[in-house]
């Protein structure tokens, strides 16, 4: 099996933080999705990650998802605050892919060891995931550029 040949998307959920391995993995990606919450320390961590990444690459395609959002308005405010700081201090554009609504069913699914979107297909968090999928597909359809393959970038980053 050759990674990347039969896949449209390969998603890696890296560890939180800014370890060397996380940075290398993230820099190998064509597009980066930073997931954060509305908690100030999480926003600070998201900003720190973007700052480190932007010091390595100026062509970053940064996307943000606000997780466990209490409301659409709060999710938008959180993104706008982060966007303002990133634009001002890093001069890097970021794009919102939306938010995942806070949903009490998610912890229940974790305890049951079942994906929440399968366990609760009609819940708020599942709808949010579907909305994010739609945003990703729309973003892809607007892009006319053929991205450098993940494997090419991965080889470059890990050989450096």
Description:
- This protein has 160 residues and is an alpha/beta fold.
- 53% of the residues lie in helices and 13% in strands.
- The protein is built from 7 helices and 3 strands; from the N terminus they run αβαβαβαααα.
- Strands 1-2-3 form a 3-stranded parallel sheet.
- Strand 2, helix 3 (72-90) and strand 3 (94-101) form a beta-alpha-beta unit.
- Helix 2 (40-56) packs parallel to helix 3.
- It is globular, with a radius of gyration of 16 Å.
- The mean pLDDT is 83.
Features:
160 residues, alpha/beta, 3-stranded parallel sheet, 7 helices, 3 strands, 53% helix, globular
| Rg | 16 Å
Instruction: Identify the strand order in the major beta sheet.
Output: 1-2-3
Q: Count all strands and give the number.
A: 3
- The number of helical segments is 7
Distance between the termini: 25 Å
- State the share of residues found in helices, binned by percent: 40-55%
Proportion of β residues? 5-15%
Overall pLDDT: 83
- Sheet with the most strands, sense and barrel status: 3 strands, parallel
Question: Per the principal axes of the C-alpha atoms, what is the gross shape?
Answer: globular
Q: Unreliable stretches, pLDDT < 50, 5 or more residues? A: none
How would you classify the helix and strand content by structural class? alpha/beta
């Amino acid at each position: 099996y050759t990674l990347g040949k039969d896949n449209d998307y390969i998603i890696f959920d890296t560890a939180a933080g800014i370890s060397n391995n996380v940075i290398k993995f993230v820099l190998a990606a064509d597009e980066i999705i930073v997931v954060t919450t509305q908690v100030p320390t999480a926003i600070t961590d998201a900003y720190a990650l973007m700052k480190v990444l932007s010091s390595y690459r100026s062509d970053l395609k940064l996307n943000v998802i606000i997780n466990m959002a209490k409301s659409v308005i709060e999710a938008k405010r959180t993104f706008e605050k982060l966007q303002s700081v990133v634009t001002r201090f890093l001069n890097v554009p970021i794009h919102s892919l939306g938010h995942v609504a806070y949903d009490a069913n998610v912890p229940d699914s974790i305890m049951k060891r079942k994906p929440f979107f399968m366990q609760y297909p009609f819940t708020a968090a599942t709808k949010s995931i579907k909305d994010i999928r739609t945003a990703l597909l729309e973003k892809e359809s607007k892009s006319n550029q053929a991205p450098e393959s993940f494997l090419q970038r991965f080889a470059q980053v890990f050989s450096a």
